[in-house]
Amino acid sequence: MTKLEKLLDRFLTKLRDFTWDELTKVLNAFGYKQISAGKTGGSRARFVSLDYPPIILHRPHPKPVLKRYQLDEIINLLKQEKLI
Known about the structure:
The protein is α+β, with helices and mostly antiparallel strands. It has three helices and three strands; from the N terminus they run ααβββα. The protein has helices spanning about 5-10, 20-30, 70-80; strands at about 35, 45-50, 55-60. Strands 1-2-3 form a three-stranded antiparallel sheet. Helix 1 packs across helix 2 (about 20-30). The longest helix has 13 residues, at about 70-80. The two termini are about 15 Å apart. The mean pLDDT is about 90.
C-alpha cells in the first residue's frame, strides 16, 4: 500500500486528528490546487480544479486539525464527483 493509499484510508475513516497538511495532499492527488482567497481572505482557503467544483473552507486554527463537519463535506463532494 502506497503512502497516498494509506492517507486516503485515513481520510475516509474521518479520524479526529486529520490535519490541514494531510488534506492538501489528498486534494492535490485529485487534481486540486490551493489558491489564496484574496487580500481579505483571512483563514479562508480555496481549492480549485479544472474538472471539478471548487472547495472553499476555513483553515483550522490555532491547531491544524480539521473539524468533523469539514471532513464530511469534502468526502460528500468527492463522492458526488465520483472521485472516491
